[in-house]
Amino acid sequence: MRMLMPPVHYPRRQEFAARHGPFSFRDLILPDQWRPGCCIITSFFDDLATGRYGPVVRAKALVNTTGGPYRFDCTYGIVDVVRFEKSIAGSRIVVIGEG
């Protein structure tokens, strides 16, 4: 687990939403034939964690990479990348953030 920004702790979700406005939910389905390298998805999650694409509350993914299946997670600037033990039927990325 790597921390790119200090974590932001809000005891209540409503408090966070009140301070930062409404959030949108994006769901990306990756084509089955596309198997990116783990470093490509890790770099994307690092960019999400540093706010490159705007404020992100949470992002998660299960992706079939060239190195096998991986789970990616980003919450308040903390990125976690772990090899997934089971096979993945379809690669998917979910991002919850502003805009």
Describe the structure.
20% of the residues lie in helices and 38% in strands. It is α+β, with helices and mostly antiparallel strands. The chain has a 6-stranded antiparallel β-sheet, with helices on one face. Strand 3 (56-65) and strand 4 form a beta hairpin. The radius of gyration is 14 Å and the shape is globular. It starts with a strand and ends with a strand.
Keywords:
six-stranded antiparallel β-sheet, 2 helices, globular, 99 residues
| Biggest sheet: strand arrangement | 1-5-4-3-6-2
How large, in whole angstroms, is the Cα Rg?
Answer: 14 Å
| Amino- and carboxy-terminal Cα gap | 27 Å
Structural class assignment: alpha+beta
- Helical stretch tally: 2
Low-confidence stretches: 1-11
Produce a short descriptive summary.
The protein has 99 residues and is of the alpha+beta class. Helix content is 20%, strand content 38%.
